[in-house]
Amino acid sequence: MTKKTKEPTLDFTTNWAYEPAPEDTKHITLKKQYDLFINGEFVKPNSKKYFATYNPATEEKIAEIAEADEKDVDKAVKAARKAFEKWSKISAQERGKYIYRIARLMQERAREFAVIETMDGGKPIRESRDIDVPLAANHFFYYAGWADKLEYAFPGRTPKPLGVAGQIIPWNFPLLMAAWKIAPALATGNTVVLKPAETTSLTALKLAELIRDSGLPEGVVNIVTGAGKTGAAIVNHPDINKIAFTGSTDVGKIIQKAIAGTDKKLTLELGGKAANIIFEDAPIDQAVEGIVNGIFFNQGHVCCAGSRLFVQESVADIVIRKLKDRMETLIVGNPLDKNTDIGAINSKEQLSKINKYIKIGIAEGAEIYQSSCAIPGKGNFCKPTLFLNASQSHRVVQEEIFGPVLTIQTFRTIEEVIEKANNIPYGLSAGVWTDKGSKIFNLTSKLRAGVVWANTYNKFDPTSPFGGYKESGFGREGGLHGLMPYLKF
Ligand code: NAP
Ligand code: MG
């Protein structure tokens, strides 16, 4: 726990059980209540209803967030439609300049974004500061560069924007997912109505403030907050041209059904259950770091988390021993403390889902191992957990847990591990650890996963396309591929 300090510029609306390190809280101001961002200004919701957002590490209320209903969504879509007429016609260089400005302002306010992301969602400040926020800014920088180069991206074709994009995002990377959605939509000349997840709306609303300050023409980006019903209102609005959804496979299926028969375009980035495969010729210490990063990064709330570990039998004992030793060094606790490795589970609901799966794993007969670390008495926390001797038919192996829980299976041959890795409804990502380049090339072509990392894990870059196969969804975000879902030719 960090030392208690008095910070004069701090303007939190509630008392904090944890006082963040002072250098991390400079210039942080949070309002008591947040309204909807429609047509370039913050407006009250039609229903006059607000819901609370909590700090999952302290269980304290941070602020109240407006709940948008169908009328609010309609207002946002109308603003986006009107803005589209101008935005799609201004020069591509101008569009690029606006997006660069958003990227630069985000860099300037990086610390504020990082602290709020950590307070609202529970992820360690080290991750918000060093990964989420810089990557989000990089995404805007990267797509700003594409704005006036679309004819080079698609030579011989004449790309045109689609119109109004409805975008719905989850709670695990709130600001980063907003950047993944908004940046390519703007670069291609579309306008946006975006809904963040219910438990993590604050950085999207801070982004709305930043967008307002950037001078982006009114109505180009609209941010409406609320629960699933608000998301459904976006999906079902007749004047939306494209839905971009990131979230669970269950909701993805509902959305796909809802827009069947309409001419709305759709991309779905859904769940995952990735195989992380360690061969006997892998650099073992490096691989153990990769396993830890693969499953414990962001408390395991990662769609592409390496949640199924496959270790070649000959090195299984040493890998598992080293993994257990490494787990003992992980610090679980106050997400605002820079030394923390594993922060808070995002919500009470998610914590009970994880705990339910831990019970299921035990009942199924897998051997449980948890690190002996202490966890805070208050807040939503979960110890890093392993299920040893898991088998392919176990639910903990087949279903997405979305927490710091790793199943471990062993294998003898390359054919066996490919078969097991692919025998799952998901196909988002995978990891391979080996000294042999030929093995890497063999596996990358046989693993049915959108992303395969070799001798590393959870590495993200705006230039690199990301997306799934099978029940992990369709369409790609990032890179040149990420432009396509927002264009017609
Ligand atoms: P979720 O429950 O599907 O929610 C995602 C978003 O959809 C939220 O904003 C949610 O609002 C909204 N929503 C809920 N019901 C809806 C409906 N009927 N119509 C329209 N929108 C609706 O997923 P989550 O629990 O937030 O996120 C975790 C999931 O996201 C995991 O499965 C994870 O693998 C996946 N994910 C995938 C990727 C990827 O790139 N493939 C990246 C990150 C996460 P509320 O917040 O109010 O529920
Ligand atoms: Mg929250």
The average pLDDT score comes to 94
CATH homologous superfamily annotation of the largest domain = Aldehyde Dehydrogenase, Chain A, domain 1
* Helical stretch tally: 16
CATH architecture of the largest domain: 3-Layer(aba) Sandwich
Count of domains: 2
Radius of gyration: 22 Å
Oligomer: single chain
Count of distinct strands: 22
Outline the biggest β-sheet: 7 strands, mixed
N-end to C-end Cα span: 55 Å
User: Strand order across the biggest sheet?
Assistant: 14-15-16-13-12-18-19
Bound molecules: NADP nicotinamide-adenine-dinucleotide phosphate, magnesium ion
Q: Strand portion, in percent?
A: 15-25%
What's the shape? globular
Enumerate the spans where pLDDT stays under 50 for 5 or more consecutive residues: 1-20
Q: How does this structure look, described?
A:
Helix 5 (125-146) packs parallel to helix 7. This protein has 16 helices and 22 strands. The longest helix is centred in the first third of the chain and has 22 residues, at 125-146. With 489 residues, it is of the alpha/beta class. Mean pLDDT is 94; it is low at 1-20. The relative contact order is 0.13. A 7-stranded mixed β-sheet has the order 14-15-16-13-12-18-19, sandwiched between helices. It has a 6-stranded mixed β-sheet with strand order 9-8-7-10-11-21, with helices on both faces. The chain has a 3-stranded mixed β-sheet with strand order 1-5-4, covered by helices on one side. It is globular and about 65 Å long. It has helices at 22-25, 70-87, 92-108, 110-121, 125-146, 150-153, 174-187, 202-214, 228-236, 249-259, 284-296, 313-328, 348-364, 395-398, 414-422, 437-446; strands at residues 33-34, 36-38, 41-43, 50-55, 60-66, 160-161, 164-168, 191-195, 221-223, 242-246, 265-269, 275-278, 308-312, 367-370, 385-388, 405-411, 426-427, 429-433, 451-454, 469-470, 473-474, 487-488. The chain folds into 2 domains: 33-270 and 472-488, Aldehyde Dehydrogenase, Chain A, domain 1, CATH 3.40.605; 275-461, Aldehyde Dehydrogenase, Chain A, domain 2, CATH 3.40.309.10. The protein is 39% helix and 18% strand. Magnesium ion (MG) is lined by residues 53-54, 56, 120-121, 199-200. NADP nicotinamide-adenine-dinucleotide phosphate binds at residues 168-172, 195, 197-198, 227-228, 231-232, 235, 246-248, 251, 254-255, 269-272, 303, 400, 402, 428, 468, 472-473.
